[in-house]
C-alpha cells in the first residue's frame, strides 16, 4: 500500500500511553510500505533528545525507545517542531537518530494532498 502517513504526537512523559501508541501506529504504517512520518510538537519534542525516552515503557508494549529506533531503522522520519523545540530550550546539537527540526511548512509539504494522519 504505497503512499504517505503522518502521526502527530504532542505528548511525552506527560502521557506515556499516547506517546507509545503513536509510535506503535507509526511502525505499523512504515511496515505497510507507507512513507511514514512522526511529527513531534508541544511536549513531544522532548522525545528528540537522547536518553529522554529510555525509561518510558507502557505495559503490553515494547519500550518507547525501541519503538522509536525501529521506526527510524525501517525508514520512518521524525520531524520536530522548531518553535516548540526552541520554547523548551532543548539542545539542537544532540538529536535522536532520524530526527530533524523543521517548521510547519515542511510538514505541510510532506503531507501534500490526500495524506492520512492521526494525532495523539
Brief summary:
This protein is of the alpha/beta class and 120 residues long. It has helices at 16-31, 64-73, 82-87, 104-111; strands at 4-9, 35-40, 77-81, 99-102, 117-119. Helices cover 33% and strands 20% of the residues.
Describe this structure in words.
The chain has 120 residues and is an alpha/beta fold. It has one domain (4-119): Hypothetical Protein Ychn, Chain: A. The protein has helices at 16-31, 64-73, 82-87, 104-111, and strands at 4-9, 35-40, 77-81, 99-102, 117-119. It has a 5-stranded parallel beta sheet. Helix 1 packs parallel to helix 2. The chain is globular and about 35 Å long. The two termini are 23 Å apart.
Total helix count? Answer: 4
Q: Kindly report the oligomeric state of this protein.
A: single chain
* CATH-defined topology: Hypothetical Protein Ychn, Chain: A
Give the CA-CA distance, first to last residue. Answer: 23 Å
Largest sheet: 5 strands, parallel
The CATH top-level class label: Alpha Beta
Please give the radius of gyration in angstroms.
13 Å
Q: What is the number of E strands?
A: 5
Overall pLDDT score: 96
CATH architecture: 3-Layer(aba) Sandwich
Residues in β-strands, percent: 15-25%
Give the uncertain stretches in residue-range form.
none
SSE string: EHEHEHEHE
Form type: globular
Sheet with the most strands: spatial strand order: 4-3-2-1-5
Pairing-aware structural class of the strands and helices?
Answer: alpha/beta
In percent, how helical is the residue content?
A: 25-40%
> In the CATH hierarchy, what is the superfamily?
DsrEFH-like
How many separate structural domains?
1
Amino acid at each position: 500500500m504505497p503512499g504517505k502517513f503522518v502521526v502527530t504526537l504532542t505528548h511525552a512523559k506527560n502521557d506515556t500511553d499516547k506517546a507509545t501508541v503513536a509510535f506503535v501506529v507509526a511502525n505499523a504504517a512504515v511496515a505497510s510500505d507507507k512513507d511514514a512520518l512522526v511529527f513531534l510538537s508541544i511536549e513531544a519534542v522532548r522525545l528528540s533528545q537522547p536518553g529522554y525516552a529510555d525509561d518510558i515503557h507502557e505495559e503490553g508494549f515494547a519500550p518507547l525507545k525501541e519503538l522509536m529506533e525501529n521506526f527510524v531503522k525501517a525508514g520512518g522520519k521524525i520531524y520536530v517542531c522548531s518553535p516548540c523545540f526552541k520554547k523548551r530550550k532543548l539542545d539542537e546539537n544532540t538529536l535522536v537518530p532520524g530526527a530533524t527540526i523543521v517548521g510547519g511548512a515542511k510538514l505541510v509539504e510532506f503531507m501534500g494532498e490526500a495524506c492520512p494522519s492521526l494525532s495523539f
